[in-house]
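[step 3/7] inverse_fold.run input=structure_tokens len=231
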């Protein structure tokens, strides 16, 4: 059952969306202002967010941008009141995936929600495997091989590789690696991340001194340049 977060301050609209989505079997979570919406988007882990633009406390554009800044990749369908071009552009630039102008047809809203959920499913399916040059990574079996040669990655190297893959080409900062993999209670330095990245490159890159896949983003962290495996 997919979970939909509805962030909408107008009571009648919120209830209408809740009823419509619930009638299709979605589990609906609601928030009546932007601040609560931002909190629920992070704590409730919805599969899709319906986001009104004009909201008390935090407006929809700011909310979308803030979620993206925090690394949250949940698909966002922006509900624009005006339907103006500048609103749509601002919304998409802020990180929304799609928009729908009010008033909208219930069937169209449901179709957009289904489309966003399908997009996530496809992306997740692709995440099972990764092709980095001649190296094949299989996250399900946790196996990495270059042709017949099996590459042995440590648990921390697997975790780093997975974070990079899940960022889908986006930057993962050294601090994000540290927080997620080493945890707050350990006291490694950002140099620790670089050391592990060098070890990972030595295994995965054909020329570790000229990495083509595990790329340094100067002053920030790393990003992955992968090849999508053939379907
Ligand atoms: Ca509103």
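[step 3/7] decode complete -> sequence:
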């Amino acid at each position: 059952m997919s979970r939909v977060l509805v962030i909408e301050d107008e009571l009648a609209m919120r209830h209408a969306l809740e009823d419509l989505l619930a009638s299709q079997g979605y589990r609906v979570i609601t928030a009546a202002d932007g601040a609560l919406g931002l909190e629920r988007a992070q704590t409730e882990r919805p599969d899709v967010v319906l986001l009104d633009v004009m909201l008390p406390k935090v407006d929809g554009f700011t909310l979308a941008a803030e979620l993206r800044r925090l690394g949250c990749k949940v698909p966002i369908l922006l509900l624009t009141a005006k339907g103006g071009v500048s609103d749509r552009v601002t919304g998409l630039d802020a990180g929304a995936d799609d928009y729908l102008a009010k008033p909208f047809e219930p069937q169209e809203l449901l179709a957009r929600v289904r489309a966003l959920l399908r997009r996530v499913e496809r992306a997740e399916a692709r995440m099972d495997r990764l092709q980095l040059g001649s190296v094949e990574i299989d996250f399900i079996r946790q196996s990495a091989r270059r042709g017949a040669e099996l590459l042995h990655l440590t648990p921390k190297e697997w975790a780093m590789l997975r974070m990079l893959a899940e960022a889908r080409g986006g930057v993962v900062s050294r601090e994000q690696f540290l927080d997620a993999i080493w945890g707050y209670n350990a006291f490694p330095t950002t140099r620790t991340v670089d050391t592990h990245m060098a070890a990972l490159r030595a295994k995965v890159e054909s020329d570790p001194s000229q990495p083509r896949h595990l790329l340094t983003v100067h002053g920030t962290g790393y990003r992955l340049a992968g090849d999508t495996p053939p379907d």
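[step 4/7] annotate
Residues 9-10, 52, 54-55 surround calcium ion (CB under 6 Å).
The domain at 129-224 is CATH 1.10.10.10 (Arc Repressor Mutant, subunit A).
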